[in-house]
Design brief:
Length: 682
């Protein structure tokens, strides 16, 4: 592969390590012709009907209790019942949470009524103690999103509206602020909305709870001009990130007073951590603040390096300091990760994890809360109508347009309709094995699960053509900020980041290769025909059904897929001999130039490389203490390299753990011959 083609002047921005080809059962063509416009609309309308069935039964409590045909607020009698009291604050939770779902459903009258009801009914002067995080994402986010659509011109503009929702959001924000008054700036997990902090409050919180408030808090600040919220959330975000381990991982639980991680220091992408990563990327998208993109890039590289399993499917719980696997369980919340990967541009990784989750869904007709990947068994069997899996399905469908994802959505709708639809609404599933229903409809069933499902089938939704900076929060709330609310990048930073070139490769559908190594047949077989589709079924010990059987052949063979490590960290050496790290390379050795860096002498330079999303090798991300931004070039001008290229030392190649780097050489100096590859080992 010629690297010069896409990075013409590049010497070392790319490093190639051979990618293993995976051959599996011969893929056959699939029958997708069934997805006509009419069929999509019909499924969309069934989703809409289910949504209104849930909403119309809901009254003004926090949550609908669909089996007892009533509603529930906080558990006043038992303050220790955090299952209820963490979310229910006696503030009409579900109503606030669904405001912008009316926008997605294109129901202007419903939106107007809901906004009026929120204004008339909801007060935050309540003696309840909900979680700061849950209240932020469900209530603050709901109010802000409602405000954005009610106030901006467009089909949902309400002529009588005078910013009431924003005032309510401001009031709520001020009630949450005292939680941040800790030595670290990390907010306490819960706060009484009327009385503020109480004595004896738990000091422990989780990474997601403390570190993913920036979308709502900063939007509140930008819209009201009251900067305290953005500052508090910003400080909390970096209070988490600055405590990451040497390998770039953040823990799950942290003490808000001391800033110490709580043992066991285990981390992953799911419960307790998930939205921290999500908000790093999404706040960058919404605000353009590149600091958050940098956090995302580094965090992603570490997660992919340590948490992703060797086959590239599941993401494990690992020790945050060593990266060693700690538990082999995955949770239902982690099913959001493929959606985030799509947003970041890593579609191939997203497809894999989503496939694994879809097989989990097919096996259980829902996603069990916790699943043990080594015993291939669910260990916690509830499914409270969580949105994460269907959210990722929507992102993947938008990115690939593969009708496979419509099949997934139709199956989800079928299962929810059959298992959860009761006379008075939608019931969560307490135990997937026995179809035991729960007398609870969590607010996210309407504000997220059915919203994303509706969007999946609503091809013409205006959001799908909206190329603005909008994001869905972790609670599925639509936020966008106009240019008047964005900060200009400082001239020096703009100059610094001018040449950045982030990659977001377009999706290339999987084509049937018919056993040959090149893409000759041109027959698009889609996700179901991928070579690793039956492997991913094997991950959850699911037997192939008739439809699967059309995609594989008994005469095919299967191999365990293996992915290359996502990132490497090593010390450069010109000849394969171990060099000690040069802890402070002088400008004579390594020097910044306008479009990147020049290495005059590679010896001892610590280098960090990270895989590219387009599958074409690795990018250098760090050199010594410098950060190499995407698109920056690394020139190597070390004459000893050319000498060693002429006489490669085989002994060095066999050296344990050696990484052989192949650099594409272009003429930057007369000493080099144009287009001759040079090898050196690290
Ligand atoms: C493809 O799907 C459509 C609609 O489900 C069906 O009518 C048709 O018979 C199928 N074609 C084949 C070749 O299976
Ligand atoms: C809870 O909210 C309802 C209105 O939805 C109100 O009537 C009731 O008094 C509130 N309860 C308490 C204890 O504040
Ligand atoms: C859900 O249940 C209601 C009442 O039992 C029924 O009217 C409705 O058709 C059902 N919806 C779906 C999609 O099954
Ligand atoms: C595969 O197809 C693409 C686009 O059709 C083409 O650019 C590429 O060269 C092909 N690869 C091979 C190995 O034939
Ligand atoms: C590169 O630096 C190392 C010390 O870090 C030195 O021993 C070596 O001679 C240098 N090479 C050249 C070509 O200057
Ligand atoms: C490359 O190295 C040579 C000799 O070591 C030096 O004369 C030249 O200026 C260097 N080129 C760049 C672009 O730094």
């Amino acid at each position: 592969m010629k690297l010069g083609r896409f990075l013409p002047k590049c010497l070392a921005a790319l490093v190639l390590i051979s990618l293993e080809r995976i051959q599996c059962a011969a893929a056959l063509a699939s029958n997708y012709s069934g997805w006509t416009i009419e069929r999509k609309l019909a499924v969309r309308e069934r989703t809409r009907a289910l949504w209104y069935h849930g909403f119309d039964n809901y009254m003004d409590h926090d949550e609908l209790t669909p089996l007892s045909c009533s509603g529930q607020g906080p558990d006043w009698a038992n303050p220790a019942n955090v299952g209820a009291n963490d979310v229910a604050g006696n503030f009409s939770l579900t109503l606030v949470d669904v405001l912008d779902t009316f926008v997605v459903l294109n129901d202007r009258i419903g939106f107007e009524n809901a906004v009026k009801n929120v204004i008339h009914w909801v007060s935050f002067d309540v003696n309840t103690k909900p979680q700061v995080f849950e209240t932020t994402i469900r209530v603050l986010g709901g109010l802000l999103s409602g405000h954005i659509f009610a106030s901006q011109s467009g089909p949902f503009h309400l002529p009588w509206y005078r910013g009431e929702l924003l005032s309510m959001a401001h009031d709520l924000g001020k009630r949450l602020l005292p939680a941040f008054a800790t030595p670290t700036g990390l907010p306490l997990a819960r706060i009484n909305l009327r009385h503020g902090l109480s004595r004896g409050e738990t000091l422990e919180t989780c990474t997601a709870g403390a570190g993913s408030l920036i979308l709502e808090f900063a939007t509140l600040s930008r819209l009201t001009g009251d900067e305290r919220f953005e500052k508090a959330a910003y400080k909390a975000f970096f209070a988490i990130w600055n405590r990451k381990s040497d390998i770039g991982l953040v823990g799950n639980t942290i003490n808000t007073w001391t800033g110490d991680w709580t043992s066991p220091e285990v981390t992953g992408i799911g419960a307790g951590i998930d939205s921290f990563y999500e908000y790093a990327l999404k706040w960058y998208i919404l605000s353009g603040e590149t600091e958050f993109l940098d956090v995302w890039d580094d965090a992603y590289a570490s997660i992919m390096r340590y948490s992703r399993s060797m086959d590239g499917f599941w993401y494990r719980l690992v020790n945050m300091r060593s990266g060693d696997v700690a538990y082999n369980t995955v949770d239902s919340l982690s099913a959001f990760w493929p959606g985030l990967q799509v947003l970041a541009g890593d579609i191939q990784s997203a497809i894999k994890l989503h496939m694994a989750y879809y097989n989990l869904w097919r096996k259980h007709s829902g996603i069990p809360e916790v699943y043990d990947t080594s015993f291939k068994q669910a260990t916690s069997h509830g499914y409270p109508l969580r949105p994460e899996f269907i959210e990722s399905t929507w992102y993947l469908y938008r990115a690939t347009h593969d009708p496979y994802y419509l099949e997934v959505g139709e199956r989800v709708l079928f299962d929810i309709s059959t298992r959860s639809n009761v006379t008075c609404g939608l019931a969560g599933i307490k135990d997937l094995r026995y179809n035991e229903q729960d007398d609870r409809m969590e607010s996210f069933a309407l504000s997220e699960t059915l919203k994303y499902l509706f969007l999946l089938f609503d091809e013409e939704n205006p959001l799908h053509k909206d190329d603005s900076n909008y994001v869905f929060t972790t609670e599925g709330h639509l936020l966008k900020l106009g240019p008047e609310h964005l900060r200009e990048m400082s001239p020096s930073r703009r100059k610094l980041r001018k040449i950045e070139d982030h990659q977001c490769p377009a999706y290339q559908p999987f084509r049937s290769a018919r056993g040959r190594r090149v893409n000759d047949s041109g027959l698009v077989v889609g996700i179901q025909g991928r070579a690793d589709a039956d492997y991913s079924r094997e991950l959850v010990a699911l037997d192939a059904n008739e439809a699967d059987s059309t995609h594989w052949s008994r005469s095919g063979w299967c191999e365990r897929p293996k992915v290359e490590l996502f990132s490497y960290d090593f010390i450069l050496s010109p000849n394969g001999k171990v060099s000690p790290e040069d802890l402070s390379p002088s400008k004579v050795k390594l020097e910044p130039v306008p479009d990147g860096y020049v290495i005059q002498n590679v010896t001892g330079i610590r280098t960090h490389i990270v895989q590219r999303f387009d599958g074409r090798g690795y990018d250098v991300r760090k050199l010594g203490h410098y950060t190499v931004r995407p698109g920056q070039l690394v020139y190597i001008n070390d004459s000893s390299l050319l000498l060693s290229a002429a006489s490669p030392s085989t002994a060095a190649i066999e050296h344990f753990g050696a990484i052989q780097l192949r650099f594409y050489v272009d003429a930057v100096d007369t000493m080099f011959t144009k287009n001759s590859p040079a090898n050196f080992k690290a």
